[in-house]
Amino acid sequence: MLNVPPQAFPAPSSQQRVAVGGRAKVPLKPGRSLMDWIRLTKSGKDLTGLKGRLIEVTEDELAKHNKKEDCWICIRGFVYNVTPYMEYHPGGEDELMKAAGADGTDLFDQVHRWVNYESMLKECLVGRMAVKPIAAPKGMLPEKKVLGASAKDLTPSYDWFQTDSLITIVIYTKQKDMNAELVIVDCQDKRLRGEIIVDNDSYLVELDLDHAVQEDLAVNIAEKVGKVEIILKKKDNIHWKMLGEPLESHSTFIKRTDRGLFYRKCKLISKTEVTHDTKLFCLMLPKSTHLRVPTGHHVYLKQIIAGTEVVKPYTPVLPFLSLDFKEPSCHDGIHIYLMIKIYSCGLFTQALDHLHIGDYISVSNPEGSFKKSQVQTSEDLFLLAAGTGFTPMVKLLNFALTEVSCLRTVKLIFFNKTEDDILWRNQLEQLALVDERFEVQFILSQPTKDWVGKQGKISSSLLSEFVKRSRKESKVLICICGPTPFTEQGVQYLKVLGYSQEEIHTFTA
């Protein structure tokens, strides 16, 4: 009997990250949108060609189905007939054909491993790959992996204690410089989940608590010694005999990329118009959540649309650019602000725009590789943004101007189609007036005849004009975010101009 993969996101083995290189979308034919695909999967049509049967697939059988008109692909041990999906794939048919008749897991993970393929392709499931037994040589025992003493010493641990009214879980991270951005805590119903980020690894405390607790929680962090306290208020002042029942991933210490994303429901508090097609969404975290999104990191929003789970990444911003060089008071760890462009034909953004105040949106843990130290060790900071690629630059800009004293130059080169598309133009121009280090340059590709500024698209000549070291040997960081072609071209032009890969950071999701 075959085990059908669960319709859950993320998949247990999903690494939840998007490839650094990103992926360009291709124009789809009319009637080939995501909504059209969802309608097709719900039409009752046989999309596998097997009339509802599930089979075990050998490598030889899989290899036979390697043509556009007959294409099977294996992802994490399960085989899908993606032939009917060819014309609906945003990355184009050629991308799918790279894994035709073969195992496409690695290719999938390189491009978009956060995508819920189980839900998208559930009606295309052919079956499971046949497992080939591997015989061990006679007299050989399976090799045991022994954790070294030094590695054991660095593994976090936890303890707990109680008073009449409180439960305190203490996590000893064994790391210096622990901070609030490295601690994520959620307590939903009686389920407690506390995740500690240690470099590229993740330590998890996950329990079904022995008794009910109140909604609000507190997190205290002793940064220098790396101790984290999670403080819960008991609902009833009774003595707990045990903290709770450990869940499957409790007390595990693994790579962050191997840890599945966790979602919590956040309430929509407000929607504010920024431009003619872009809005600032304000979401409120639950009282039982402690979460801080680091500068340059993104979260995933998850919505069920027509019965199918759809996920998209967005970079949180500040509610406004600070002109007094202080963090806005509403950047309080309770609210998350997202600047989202509403596309007229965009299934996901239209669904977001139709939400009412008080509705809920599922928001994931933060993801990303950007480190503040990249800015703190630089003298010149250049930000290249196109359209809503401006969003990662908002918190980065605020951090650079408020907390990094060694910077000589902070310059934003902002590419848009028209003047009406420029996000927070007035705020950026005011910021340039109050801080002599900051300069903003707007460049339009479809300007009106009244536009007196620069025009064109990203090019080597434009970058050579605006991206210049303040002195010959100054340390430079160049951050780029925008559509994939914009980002890829920008990196190529910068390398031609003599900037190294270490001096360039691309935001892709």
Defining traits:
single chain; 509 residues; alpha+beta; seven-stranded antiparallel β-sheet; 29 strands; 18% helix; 33% strand; globular; disordered N terminus
What do these coordinates show?
With 509 residues, this protein is of the alpha+beta class. It is 18% helix and 33% strand. Strands 20-19-23-16-17-22-21 form a 7-stranded antiparallel sheet. A hairpin with a 2-residue loop joins β3 and β4. The longest helix has 13 residues, at 391-403. It is globular and about 65 Å long. Residues 1-23 and 136-150 have low confidence and may be disordered.
Strand-helix topology:
Elements (H helix, E strand, L loop, with lengths): L33 H8 L13 E3 L1 H6 L1 E2 L2 E6 L2 E4 L11 H5 L4 E2 L1 H8 L4 H4 L4 E5 L19 H6 L2 E6 L3 E7 L10 E6 L2 E8 L2 E9 L3 E10 L4 E8 L9 E3 L5 E4 L7 E13 L2 E7 L4 E2 L8 E7 L2 E7 L1 E2 L17 E7 L5 H7 L6 E5 L8 H4 L3 E7 L4 H13 L5 E8 L8 H10 L3 E7 L9 E2 L4 H7 L9 E6 L2 H13 L7 E3 L3
Parallel strand pairs: 1-6, 3-5, 24-25, 24-28, 25-26, 26-27, 28-29
Antiparallel strand pairs: 2-3, 3-4, 4-6, 7-8, 8-13, 9-10, 9-18, 10-11, 11-14, 11-15, 12-13, 16-17, 16-23, 17-22, 19-20, 19-23, 21-22
**What does the largest sheet look like?**
7 strands, antiparallel
Task: Please give the number of β-strands.
Answer: 29
Number of helices: 12
Q: Cα distance, first to last residue?
A: 38 Å
Low-pLDDT parts are 1-23, 136-150
- Helix proportion: 10-25%
Please list the strands of the largest sheet in the order they lie side by side. Answer: 20-19-23-16-17-22-21
Mean pLDDT: 86
Q: State which percent range the strand residues make up.
A: 25-35%
Radius of gyration: 25 Å
Characterize the quaternary organization of these chains.
single chain
User: What class do helices, strands and sheet pairing give?
Assistant: alpha+beta
CA-based shape: globular
